[in-house]
Amino acid sequence: MIKTAITKNNNKINLIEINNQNYDKTILIIGVFHGEEPQGEYLINEYLKKDLSKIKNRLLIVPCLNPDGKALNKRQNANGVDLNRNFPTRNWKVTENKEYFGGNKPESEIETKFITEILSDYKIDAILSIHAPFKIVNYDGPAKELAEKISEITHYPVQADIGYPTPGSFGNYAGVERNIPTITLELPEDESDETLWKINEPVFDYLACEY
Predict the structure, then answer these.
(1) Which residues, in sequence order, are bridge partners of residue 140?
(2) 149-178: per-residue pLDDT in tens?
(3) In DSSP terms, which residues pair with 193 in a beta bridge?
(4) Helix (H/G/I), strand (E/B), else coil: 45
(5) What's the DSSP call for residue 103?
(6) Which CATH class is domain 3-209?
């Protein structure tokens, strides 16, 4: 554990680092942006059970970014903010839509600051953010080739545009404005955790060992 934060409801957010000293690239993996999308944490925890002593890249892993939302089984955090609309992007704006409420100002939330600090402290070469339920590989920034590779592994279609506006999104912040290849891996919600792991385990292996 190299970094932690305490949320409004006194839950911990953890950043885990795994590297073999002579690493090549640095990959950031994030689970549970939205509390009702817990699948990412399950996949990450399954991956952490593996023998990772021979991975090529350094992994920075946040298993659960939104533990308050997860405990409440809701999209937003304990303040009612959609973390994926709270990043300090050029297109951030106050929205009246409560489901996608991005806060009264950008980067107002503990969870958002946790991620922006990681991006300030480390040179990140690629990002995998795990969501649900669209069963697509969405990407931002210079990540088309990586998205196509992940699509080849999972057979989820590549989709550059999620289909609706996302002001203040992490993809805009990291991918578009910081030019970091950023993948939003949207898992289907109608498959078991075990099935999702079987399909997506090679994605983790690829990012850790081949990318």
Answers:
(1) 182
(2) 999 999 999 998 877 778 999 999 999 999
(3) none
(4) helix
(5) -
(6) alpha beta
Amino acid symbol at 54:
K
CA pair distance 53, 176, nearest whole angstrom: 33
The rounded distance, in Å, linking the Cα atoms of 67 and 61 is 15
What are the residue ranges spanned by the domains of the chain?
A: 3-209
Using only the alpha carbons of the chain, give its radius of gyration.
Answer: 16
pLDDT tens track for 27-62 = 999 999 999 999 999 999 999 999 999 999 999 999
Cα–Cα distance for residue pair 111/89, rounded to 1 Å? 16
Question: What does DSSP say about strands 3-6 and 26-31: parallel, antiparallel, or unpaired?
Answer: unpaired
Q: Print burial letters for 81-115: b (CB count within 10 Å at least 16), e (below 16).
A: bbbbbbbbbeebeebeeeebbbbeebbebbbbebb
Residue 26, SS3? strand
Answer whether 129's CB lies under 8 Å from 168's CB: no
The reply to whether the predicted model has a pTM over 0.90 is yes
Q: Which positions are catalytic?
A: 186
